[in-house]
């Protein structure tokens, strides 16, 4: 994707994602993960790896009651290449998200 295409993608993502599904303090971490591949905290990393068991134990009070919504949010709105299992998460991190690693 070109820089312009990435910018348009992220703008569309911001508009179409149902941000009410996840706590507000997590929104920027999700954006940063998708756009830059910046490794998130342990809860979000567990969710991205689809390790719901681990995520339950790492969740703060705001995320704990939203696990099911998180699963739907990831499935419905987040690009599948950046979540699903540990390998996808590692590859997305190594890639540097949509924008790629700085050269």
The count of DSSP E runs of length 2 or more, i.e. the number of strands, is: 0
Helix content range of the residues, please? 55-70%
Q: What would you call the shape?
A: globular
Nearest-integer average pLDDT: 96
Q: Which residues sit in consecutive blocks of at least 5 with pLDDT less than 50?
A: none
**Rg measurement, Å:** 13 Å
Strand content bin: under 5%
N→C terminal distance: 16 Å
Give the number of domains: 1
Pairing-aware structural class of the strands and helices?
A: mainly alpha
From N to C, what is the helix and strand string?
HHHHHHH
Counting H and I runs of at least 4 residues, what is the number of helices?
A: 7
How is the main sheet built? none
What can you see in these coordinates?
There is one protein chain. By secondary structure, the chain is mostly helical. The protein has one domain (3-95). Helices cover 61% and strands 0% of the residues. It contains seven helices and no strands. It has helices spanning 3-16, 27-36, 42-48, 52-58, 61-64, 67-77, 86-95.
What layout of secondary structure does this protein have?
Elements lengths: L2 H14 L10 H10 L5 H7 L3 H7 L2 H4 L2 H11 L8 H10 L8
Which features characterize this protein?
7 helices
Explain briefly what this protein structure is.
With 103 residues, the chain is mainly α.
């Amino acid at each position: 994707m070109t820089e312009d295409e990435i910018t348009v993608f992220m703008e569309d993502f911001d508009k179409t994602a149902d941000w009410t599904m996840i706590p507000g303090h997590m929104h920027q971490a999700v954006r940063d993960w998708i756009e830059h591949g910046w490794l998130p905290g342990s809860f979000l990393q567990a969710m991205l790896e689809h390790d719901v068991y681990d995520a339950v134990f790492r969740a703060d009070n705001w995320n704990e009651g939203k696990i099911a919504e998180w699963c739907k949010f990831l499935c419905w709105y987040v690009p599948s290449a950046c979540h699903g299992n540990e390998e996808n998460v590692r590859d997305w991190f190594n890639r540097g998200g949509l924008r790629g690693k700085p050269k």
